[in-house]
Amino acid sequence: MAAIQITGEDVLGMTQHWLGTPVCGYLGSDYGSDLKALLQQPQSAVNADAVIPKLRSDVPVLNMLDDQAVELYWRDEGIDRKWLVIGVGGQLIVAGESARPIRTTKGG
Question: How many domains does the chain have?
Answer without folding.
Answer: 1
